[in-house]
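# step 3/5: fold
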Amino acid sequence: MELQLIQNKIHEIRGQRVMMDFDLAEMYGVETRSLKQAVKRNHERFPPDFMFELSKIEWDSLISHFVISNRGGNRFLPYAFTEQGVAMLSSVLRSDKAIALRLRSGTGSKSKIQNPK
């Protein structure tokens, strides 16, 4: 993904810059369902300042303001990940792209949302 494409997927919600679970799943080359399962298995690694679930009102607003498709009528509300949540997510996912991002950003360092190529 190009940097501009990633930047276009960053939204401000609840006063925080976040990326949505479905965009991160695409970026990491996994299904959204798999990403959410990894988060649930490792819930202790994702405190509220790393990740939160959108409310129905927030989701509806995001859809209308940013012309995001409803992704085929999701039954569940999406998760929003802060920068720290994105970094943690790369450590719990097992995809090649997540591993590449983890290796590039280095362990223990504060990383920016980057293009995993």
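# step 4/5: annotate
Residues 3-105 form a domain with the Mlu1-box Binding Protein; DNA-binding Domain fold (CATH 3.10.260).
# step 5/5: archive (pending)
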